[in-house]
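Review form for a predicted model. The reviewer records the input and the model, then writes brief findings.
Reviewer: anonymous (R2)
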Amino acid sequence: MANILRTLNGWFWWENIWLPENCSWSNFEDRNGYVYPKPQQLYVTIPYAFGMLIIRFFVERCIAAPFASVLGIKNAKRVKPQTNPTLETFFKEDTRKPSPSEIRKLSKKCNWSVHMVEKWFKRRRNLEIPTVQKKFQEACWRFVFYFSSTVAGFIFLYDKPWFSDIWEVWNNYPFHPLQPSQYWYYVAEMSFYWSLILTIGIDTKRKDFKAHVVHHFAALGLMFCSWSANYVRVGTLVMIVHDTADIWLEAAKMFNYAHWENTCSTLFIIFSIIFVITRLILFPFWILRATMWYPIYYSQTIVIAYFFFNGMLLVLQFLHLYWGYLIFRILRKFIFIKNVKDERSDEEEEVDSSDAEEECKKNGIKDGCESTDPLLNNNNH
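Model under review:
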């Protein structure tokens, strides 16, 4: 088994896959004060991801939660439906939204009224939807990270020649010594995306959940590939192009949850403009052009890493087009219907007052029933 792993490792790190002609891994040994990227340097991003989760916990609890309270966002508690194994099994194994005929069958099976079965499914579905405060805290954490990484990115890159002249990403390639700022920029970004993958099962799920999963793995694959093949210069440009727009999206979400409609609309329009500039103009016509076309000027041989790297970039570009489509749909509604809403979110279903009263009677509560049911007074969206 050890021999098989060594053989696979040798194949994976075959120099013809990663490096230009007449170049070997020995050329990247640190010498004369110069340090070069090495794949094993990225191993620290996995334990650092847990450190990122600690920072996230602090931001959500100590910054986002108090800020949510200032904005009037309360941590509403959901009313659990009455325990019913038959309906619970149907909910988990069949469908969360039964048809009218299925509801009638279940009502006979449980000896409940149709209205009671419908109410049970509404409340059970509501339990699956995160509270507004939880979504606010997640958006606040992402805003803090994207803002910090964007500011750091501009500080790291503003005086670099390849930031203003894209040709410089290939000048003297692949012998680009690694700078400490580039190392920490990569470590922070990869640790963040590892942390998102670690919490993917408990974070708020949206309708573009699969697209986000693909994006996270594509981003990690891109960063690993660009580091291993010493495409670090262009890798830093890809990261800053992506983070710049995300700041405004997360800010718009935060104020949307707080029902600051005018502020949310303004931030969303700013996000849309920056998204178009960075993801639909700069990324394909500046970065993709540099990664797909310019390499032929510095090398007669195109290595396999070139195709993998550009393949992942194209995956990102297809995701940009998909998200751009969603953004334009929201903008169209904003312009013609004056209603900006994140179409990726599930909405909480309201339970009418008769249902609340019935639940209160079951629990022995006689007075103040309507005002004590958080589902009735919670306009989460």
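Findings: The CA atoms of residues 186 and 223 lie 7 Å apart.
Further findings: The radius of gyration is 26 Å.
Recommendation: see findings above.
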